[in-house]
Amino acid sequence: MSTLNEYLLQKREAGLKLKELTAQTPEYKSLSAKVRAKGRSGVREIRIRDFQIISDSPEDYAGYSLGPSSPEIQLGVLGSCLTHITLIQASLRGVSLESLEVEVSGQQHPLAGTEGYEGIPIYPHNITYKLYITSKEPPETIAALHEAVEKACPIYNLLLNPQQINGEVVLSAPRED
Hints:
4 helices, alpha+beta
């Protein structure tokens, strides 16, 4: 049965090369995503680089359930980032991992923010995660790995330390055909 240990060796090499390159030219990396609501369905088409993700609402919120909702994607993004950073930290520290899985959950109330429910957050909250690790490493090694993951995970830290978001509306008239 294949484990993550072979991949961790590759990850370590790639990480060391990236660190070396970044040290030579330390620059900020721009990130972007573009989202478009599609016609009659309202499905959100998320485009990031050459990739597309579909987001939709469940049927009970005028959706067609063609993809996960934005809050569900956010939990998935947190889980993906925690997984990736765990792999990076394990590779850099020489920690052996047979398998790794992350489960993220949270709550969101459908009436949050409306009259009578003003005290309930409109955003996902009570977020928890579990790292399921199979490893021969001692518990203290895994505890140190977990601490390093929480320190280095960008999405985990974004959610703990929210950023100011600046927005604007660019209005254009509809095309007349």
